[in-house]
Amino acid sequence: MGKRILIVDDEKNIRELLKFNLENEGYKTIEAVDGKEALEKADQSIDLVILDLMLPEIDGLNVCKKIRNDDKLGDLPIIMLTAKSEDIDRIIGLELGADDYITKPFNMRELVARVKALLRRITMSKSYDEDEEKIINLKDIIINIKNHTIKKDGNEIPMTPKEFDLLVYFIRNNDQVFSRDKLLKEIWGYEFSGDTRTVDVHVRRLRKKLGENLIKTVRGVGYKFEKVE
């Protein structure tokens, strides 16, 4: 069965354009015209949300926040659509848990590529080899690769798909230094030109959730993970 994508935008022409192109790629689409309808239609049958920021009823930032705070939908992948003039909102969107963003007007081929890359990475992250380490212990942090869960001091820490992927990638490549471009390619699955703040925001969120000392900034290069036994 094709993956189900919820398209949330109050502009009919954009919804129709997204619907046409995504369904041509084999996806199934569901539409919502405002934030309230989006929250009504977001359920466990949805595989990914394309979410506009500027929405009637409930804006995209609050829709994103409500999804991330929902116990059943907290790890639902979200791609946020933003206008170029809404730079601060893009950062806030990532802080609230969006996995990726793309600016309007957008290139349809690029958006479809982003959708494919995000869904592919989610599928890969949920699969594992029988010989792969399934439980990773980092002092007071326990990461269950199979169940896609993380606990700190016995309490489960909510993680978006990209936060989980990024953390596990760092752990498996302990003490290696990675540029932001490299992390975008490995974790988001595409070549990214221009703004690399997506990585910075995800690293900042991981530090906030797990502690400041796990992921180090290497000035002028990028980031590295220092494993704590």
Give a concise summary.
By secondary structure, this protein is α/β, with parallel strands linked by helices. It is built from 8 helices and 12 strands. It has 2 domains: 4-125, Rossmann fold (3-Layer(aba) Sandwich), CATH 3.40.50; 130-225, Winged helix-like DNA-binding domain superfamily/Winged helix DNA-binding domain (Arc Repressor Mutant, subunit A).
Can you put this structure into words, describing what you see?
The chain is of the alpha/beta class and 229 residues long. The protein has two domains: 4-125, Response regulator (Rossmann fold); 130-225, Winged helix-like DNA-binding domain superfamily/Winged helix DNA-binding domain (Arc Repressor Mutant, subunit A, Orthogonal Bundle), CATH 1.10.10. The protein is 41% helix and 22% strand. It has helices at residues 12-24, 35-41, 60-68, 87-96, 108-126, 161-172, 180-188, 197-210; strands at 4-8, 28-32, 48-52, 78-83, 100-104, 135-138, 141-144, 149-152, 155-156, 177-179, 215-218, 222-225. It has a five-stranded parallel beta sheet, sandwiched between helices. A hairpin with a 2-residue loop joins β6 and β7 (141-144). The longest helix is centred in the middle third of the chain and has 19 residues, at 108-126. The radius of gyration is 17 Å and the shape is globular. The N and C termini lie far apart (43 Å).
